[in-house]
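Running log. JK asked me to keep both predictions on one page so they can be read side by side. First protein, sequence followed by its tokens:
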Amino acid sequence: MMRADWIDSVPMWVLLTALCALSGATMEGGYRFGAWRKSRCPSETEGPVGAMVASILGLFAFMLAFTFGMAAERHEKRRQAVLSEANAIGTTYLRSQLIPERQRNDSIRLLREYVDVRLQGTSKEHHEWAVNRSEEIHRELWALAVKATESNTGMSCAMYIQSLNNLIDIHGARIQAGLANRIPGVIWLVLLLLSLFSMLAVGYQAGITAASRSPAMALLVLAFGIVIFLIGDLNRPQEGFIIVSQKPLISLRESMNAGNR
């Protein structure tokens, strides 16, 4: 199976530059081939070729819209995952006030550290460490919850355990949304191939009409390149120009600090 992260290893500016250069070269190749074809087969008319080019461009536009919608939807899920996690941590933090004092202070300390870890985990170089440390904190918090129930089996401890369980579940959902829920590599491959086929067809059509090269050809290459660049940007949660805001977690950390004064 083709890996979905192969394109994520390419810097965004390299992706846009390479895509535009390759598309422009493909269009130029199609133009020259069309001119050569016209000189050897004058009977080939623009009408049928134009219809086929329109079909290819329509298919390419559909694929762009489909992929953009997929990327935008997943970006929104990542944004919602951050908000849900902040709410879950905040609820657990408040309910930790209900458990016995011996576990309460350690739970509050770990939850404050947890927010810091989650914020640091947004950077690529700290991501793996943040995931591992988050899971360690989960185990430590759960051990505290078990100890709390040994001395208090009332509703307050049950509410704390419920919120802690929800926090752990959301952690897994956020990892799934941030890492695994990406645009599949095969879709990227099809999209890039359709881009090249479209540019080739447009260049070929211009060649058989014996038209001179138009500046609009460069604008077409750039326009499609920017849309694909935007899709790639949406597919990378913490890179590029469109990132998933961590404001809910930052606000939560500020409120924790204010409550600690």
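And the second, directly underneath as requested:
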Amino acid sequence: MMGVSFIRESFIRDARHELLMATHAVVRRRHARQLRWLRRRGSDAVYSLRPFEQTRSIFVHVPKASGVSVNMALYGGMGAGHMRISEYELAFSASEFYSYFKFTFVRNPWDRLFSAYQFLKSGGMLDVDRAWAQERLARYGHFRQFVLEGLRLKETLSHVHFAPQHGFLLSLDRRRYPIDFVGLFENLPEDFAAIAKRLGRSAGLEHLNRTPGALRDYRDAYDGAMIDEVAAVYRKDIALFGYDFDGAKLGNQISLRDAGRLLRR
């Protein structure tokens, strides 16, 4: 039997959630319409929330962490793209949001940054990617210059491919990380299999949207100054997900994740 305090806390939580949704519908009408449009689209559409409803799950697609491959394998589409967990809070009712299985994949910040830089320099996926790269990245002659001179700029960190990963997982009130499972890019086959089993899917994972030059070891692209700069800029991601530059702590990361201690420190 549920305790009175639990029922009261759930009631307060749900009431706050509904108030946030109502306020959002008034203050950000265009965004609210976009969220409703995503919910109305059929499950066979490229961008749709219907597969999330059907599987009672939410996948937060952090850029350059194999999200395209995961989305296509589990849902047959792109879900809602790079939507943050705070936006899913607004897209779904309280009962849906809190009961759905919410998961993501994250990636070593040094590796992800190198991949994102190569991805955009090669033209990205969309016209907006190419335009941004031509305007913002063309001024840097090489990756080292970009890291040391451009990474800290607001125009860089506000771009979806360079934004810190934990920001995609932060709740609307900016107090919590309401994620049930944090998949690790470095443990992709095993973590994907666990998620697929949880969702009752038998899908295989195909590597899609591969970045040109992805076979190059990211560690070869860095020197000491660059390593330190990335560590400073993405210090919160590194702390929350347990990363180090060399990727030597994977076993410890998995242990922390399985003990529910990632995103809790």
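Observation for JK regarding the second prediction: The chain has a mean pLDDT of 90.
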